[in-house]
Amino acid sequence: MVGCPFIVGGLILLIIFLVCLAKRNKSHKLQSQINALKDKANSWEETEILAFDPASQLNESEFKEMTDRLKKRIVVPHFNEPEKSPYGTPATFVNEVADHLTESFDFSMVKDVLGRFKHFKTVVGDIHLHFIHVVGNELHASTPIILLHGWPSTIWEFHQSIPLLRHQGYTVVAPSLPGHGFSDPPTVAGVSPAVIACAYHKLMLQLGYKRFVISGGDFGSLIGNLMTFMFPESVIGLHNTLNLAQMGWRPLLQTLVGSVLPSLVYTTEQEHKSVHPLSELKDRMYKGMAYFHVQSVIPDSYGYGMVDSPVGLIGWIGFTYANASCSRDSSKTPMENLREGIRNFGIDNICANLAIFWATRCAQASMRIYYEFHANDRELLENLSIPEVPVAMSNFPSSLMR
To answer: N or C: which end of the chain has fewer CB within 10 A?
Structure first.
């Protein structure tokens, strides 16, 4: 019995040693992964940057096919649709968006708006990239900023912010994610967010920008974080609209402690209510992130329907726009929430993105980024630390991850 305290103490020390060893091995593994990515990026040769006209892929015939097929759609409910439908996208939503596309939406407006900017294409490694490049207002000292979108977005999301940023003295670079819109689908497997981060960094250097600001949303936030982590010497500042601090074991522990002792974790009542009660958080994440799980495992299985059917495109991608832009108030019906999302995002903005997805037939390829993330980068993100650069985050009320 006398030796028990020594045995217990020895076991505690052994556990601490093993945990430290595991952490060191994981850190070494991640550093090796980062070094391999950088070495691969350094081997990429610069290729010619060519001017590109997005109108060449936005054909009126494609939009006519889209609207003709929507006019012949069969999306009326085949049974009584409950007012509080728990089954996903309501038929009413599909019909309302389809009606706007066929009766009111001006497809030529998409070409006219995008035509105001200078577009380019180039090849970085194995990635065929499209990007907008707008030089800042000559009256101001120009600071480069790269705008990064996620899924299911296109560079259409930036058509209002680019002129504002230019007027404030920023030179704007806005690439289309690989497989999204005007960036070709990857021709090889393994084009994960970390690889894309290296490609974007290489692009900025090729354009002559050794230091720049990054602003990203959704997967753009993840890619921006990876760029900052791997190339801190190039980053003036980082702005995110997705709270990546919620991923990994640390925020999980914080959430559990906060459920018992909120004052130790949260500084405001609003922060506490955004996470607790945990049952509501779990329900919100489970329902709101259903697409994330599907696309991380079988993206192509859903993609065929969206490439072939504009109804499928509205039901999956159109719904995602509206659902991510509303409060998802449990006291309202699904359509009340979705109509709020339509008002917030703008019905023409939803339709413009859908039209670009349809004209470029990119829906299937766009979803593969989720698979590549889970297959290649998940562990890297969970152990990511941001170097000491200025970081800002926009935490919007309707965000699924606040």
So the answer is: N
Please state, in angstroms and as integers, the Cα–Cα distance from residue 263 to each residue in 260, 269, 272, 334, following that order: 9, 9, 9, 34
pLDDT at 67 over 90: yes
The pLDDT of residue 316 is 94
Question: Cα separation of 40 and 314, whole Å?
Answer: 38
Distance of CA 120 to CAs 48, 51, 129, Å? 10, 4, 8
Q: Where are the alpha helices (DSSP H) in 106-145?
A: 107-114
Question: Do 129 and 121 contact (CB within 8 A), yes or no?
Answer: yes
- The alpha carbon of residue 326 and the mean position of all alpha carbons in its chain are separated, in whole angstroms, by 17
Which residues does residue 121 pair with via DSSP β-bridges, in sequence order?
Answer: 50, 130
Report the alpha-carbon distance of residue 335 to residue 391 in Å, rounded: 36
Strands 50-52 and 119-124: antiparallel
- Report the distance separating Cα 307 and Cα 85, nearest Å: 26
Amino acid occupying residue 384: L
Contact 129, 174 (CB under 8 A): no
Residue 10, token pair as written in the block: 């020895």
Q: DSSP for 66-116, please give it.
A: HHHHHHT---S-SSPPPTT--SSS-HHHHHHHHHHHHHT--HHHHHHHHTT
Tell me the residue type at 238. Answer: L
Whether pLDDT at 402 is above 60? no
Q: pLDDT tens for residues 268-323?
A: 666 655 555 655 666 666 666 788 889 999 999 989 999 999 999 999 999 999 98
Please state the separation of Cα 273 from the chain's center in Å: 25
| pLDDT recorded at residue 117 | 97
| pTM of structure | 0.86
- For 206-259, the DSSP string reads HTT-SSEEEEE-THHHHHHHHHHHH-GGGEEEEEESS-GGGSSHHHHHHHHHHH
Question: Which CA distances in Å does 344 have to 324, 339, 367?
Answer: 10, 9, 24
Tell me the per-residue pLDDT of 96-131, one tens digit each, with 9 for 90 and over: 999 999 999 999 999 999 999 999 999 999 899 999
CB–CB of 122/174 below 8 Å? Answer: no
φ and ψ at residue 177, rounded to 5 degrees: -55, 145
* Gap between the Cα atoms of 117 and 227, Å rounded: 25
